[in-house]
Amino acid sequence: MRKTFLKVNGRGYQFVVQPDRVLLDLLREDLHLTGAKQSCDQKGQCGACTVIVDGKAVRSCLAKAADLDGAEIFSVEGLGTPDNPHLIQEAYVLSGAVQCGYCTPGMIMATKALLDRNPNPDTAEIKQALAHNLCRCTGYVKIIDAVKLAGRFLRGEITPDQVRPDPRSGMIGVSHPRPSAMLKACGLAEFAADIKVQDAAEVAVVRSTEHHALITSIDTSAAEKMPGVIGVMTSKDIQGTNRIKAIFDDQPVLCEDRVRSLGDPIVVVAAETRDQAQAAARAVRIVYDPLPVMMTPEEALADGAVQIHSRFPNLCYRQPQIKGDAQKALARSAAVVEARFSTQMNHQAPLEPEPCVAYLEGEGEDALLVVIGRSIMIHTHMAILQAALGWENMRYEEAFSGGQFGIKASITSEAIAGAAALHFKRPVRYIPSLHEAMLLTPKRHPFSMKVKLGADRDGKLTAYANDFIVNNGVYQHIGIVVIIRALQMLSGSYNIPNIDVLAQLVYTNNAAGGAARGAGPPQVAFALESAMDMLAHKLDMDPLEFRRMNSLKPGQSVSTGAVVEQWPFPELCDAFRPHYERAKEEAASFKDGPVKRGVGIAATAFGIASPGDSAVAEVQLDPDDGITIYAAAADPGEGNDSMLTQIAAGLLDLPMKKVRLVTRNTDQTAQTGPAAASRITYMVGGALVNAVEEMKKTMEETGVRDYEGLKKAGKPLRFIGKKKAVQGNLDPETGQGPTFESQVHNIQMAEVEVNTETGEVRVIKMTAAVDPGPVIHPQNLEGQMEGGMDQGVGYALREEYIHGHTKDWITFKYPTMKTAFDMEIIVRETPRLKGALGATGIGEMTMVSTAPAVINAIEDACGVRIYDLPATPEKIKAALAQGK
Ligand code: FES
Ligand code: FES
To answer: Which site among 368, 445, 590, 703 is 20 to 30 Å from 213 CA-CA?
Structure first.
């Protein structure tokens, strides 16, 4: 042990610590300062733990407390509070740099250290100073803006009040600070791992080291005797079905007699500390009898392949889509392109791993199980947990969430935390490492696609065939939904009269596929938008004009046969054209030398409000004549809190502070569907508009507009609004049927440089033209676009999840400040016939066009086309060598 004196946020502390105790643990565990976060298993990769030590930005997970004797330390809590924020915190909030907020405290501290030594940094200096701080949400654009704005504040050039929107200005189309942003900027928003639960046991999980095997024996005897161990549990100790049933009941909470993928959970160990639990977990002995491992659909569909789930065949779903006669139309087409494309398995990569807290309120059979996690569908997940754990009396609470991008459409750590709380009758904290979080979360599905696209002599599309096989991985999660979404958006922005598709979903022993930003459309859009460029070239047509002339028109139908009412895509192409011309002209002057510049485009018509969707929101008039909105609409960082607040405040002419939100708790809200599929603005915002309209109607009928008046008149004070999308399903034989009620339209352009000697690609700029309908919060729209395009570029060029190999942010190739690029966004606001105030939703569309735009730009730059994502330098070099 060593003695060390530290001054933290202006106050002195004497500590006696183990020599290897890191500053981050000391701040979080001893001083309960939870502003500094951790994402990367203390490997120094994420920067979320950044604090200032003696004037320098330091990753506190790398600093040993014992080595800091006499140091002066500042964490984000030492800067300011929501009532009295520091100018840097103001700058982050006003710039829209705070989305999920998980990276924010670390970013702010790195910014403070930079501005203290360099009051007026340029972009390159900012990128250098914040190079160790990762962010998945923002694409770094608004963070760089925030640093520059903070510099201006601190230099006295401008004040926050000069930047802050007037609170009395309109509510729609104005970027008022998000309700939760300052709490996050001050490090006070509680993420699940920040929640202190008295007497909590820490749990660790023994996970399969095999990809596919029978469990022959489990020996926990040594583990049970280890220091601090409270107990162990296996599947036999779970009282419910032990099945997490999203679509199929194929996933055990804890494996019984067989493991089907690396990382499958088998034993839970509870101990007094996390270190003790993990040490005991390592002492559990499991003997396996290996079974054949099938990581690809080809292996799982081979003759004699072992069935991975006894009750479900390996080919677990197939859905054709037939419209017209595509084969005949292709045979008669003047030009046809044909190719095979594939996309990789990918991790959604939210910065926060998967912490969860669970405890019992009360005792015995009547006790209430409380689960606090990151769910984006708290009611659905609570119902799944109730059945899996056999415990009806339950409440789910949504903590602040460090991003999710689809992961949290699935149960991740909650079932284990809940099961452990019930079994050990102790509060539990389950804080998986990043590596473990990667093993236990579902991934973006890899697609293999065989494509033919045809056009007539005039360049009009005639037919599209796309047979695609999807590697579902080991558990179903929402694989079928991903296929249906891919089919509903298969024809993209275009009128394609003939379609012929066979989609197949195949169980393998690979990591489970699940929801991931876009979930299906990004994969099929990569194939279609690549083929569109190939066909335009074959016809010697300009790719933008080719897309514009083939745009769907109102009254025509998408690939499901559903007729659309609105389709403002040609106008978007027109708004986009000057930017495209500018980029083409600039690229033309970069043709000499080994570094070639290219321009590529791709489009999306992303569906909003899927068939069968419905939402509910309630508003209650409060005694101060403000309102409270009740709706289980999660906000893992997109800004749903802004959207709901501003819609209600705008419709009722209230200041934002008189609109309260109750969204995070199953006791106080009704089910309103997942914060997924870009549906919250359109569906829940739409339900909220209807609830407010009900309230206003009652006020008009009664002739009073206030709480007291309505109460005296005996009128209700709480009003329900509902929103229903079109109903129906795709026909199982033809894939024909309804599609989304509305669409958000987008066209993106990548400007890239390809080094033909190294194969390296540098994205210089992404430009996006988007028509989402009337914009409620412009900064949130930009933030979604920027973050989505940053993710899309990672998907195009670098990122890939390889089960068993990808363990941290380095092996994942996380985007950083250094890989960040310029972005420009052009907005058209065509009001939609049925949206919330005419608005749609934008979260997922943002990355759908990005990968094909980048791949088309690479081809434009150096003449080689990449068919298999990601387009790594090795693939580009190999393609160049083959002259493809
Ligand atoms: S936790 Fe310190 S850098 Fe990631
Ligand atoms: S705001 Fe940076 S990780 Fe979410």
So the answer is: 445
Q: Which residues contact 588 (CB under 8 A, 6 or more apart)?
A: none
Give CA torsion, residues 12, 14, 19, 23, to 10 deg. Answer: -30
3-class secondary-structure state, position 88: helix
Buried b (16+ CB within 10 A) or exposed e, 553-568: eeeebbbbbbebebbb
Question: Whole-angstrom Cα distance, residue 460 to residue 719?
Answer: 50
Q: What is the pLDDT of residues 280-334, one digit of tens each?
A: 999 999 999 999 999 999 999 999 999 999 999 999 999 999 999 999 999 999 9
* Helical segments of 202-260, H only: 221-224
pLDDT tens across 763-781, in order? 999 999 999 999 999 999 9
Contact 107, 817 (CB under 8 A): no
Nearest to 195 by CA among 430, 434, 367: 430
CA dihedral 66, 67, 72, 75 (to 10 degrees): -70
CA of 179 to the centre of ligand 2 (A): 16
Cα separation, 119 vs 735, in Å, equals 60
Three-class SS of 803-839: CCCCCCHHHHCCCCHHHCCEEEEEECCCCCCCCECCE
Point out the ligand 1 atom lying closest to the alpha carbon of residue 59. 2
**Active site residues per annotation:** 844
Residue that is written with structure tokens 């609409």 in the block? 633
Of all atoms in ligand 2, which is nearest to the CA of residue 100? 4
- How far is Cα 730 from Cα 344, in angstroms, rounded to an integer? 27
pTM, entire model: 0.97
For residue 752, the one-letter residue type is V
Query: What span, in angstroms and rounded, lies between the C-alpha atoms of 328 and 16?
Result: 80
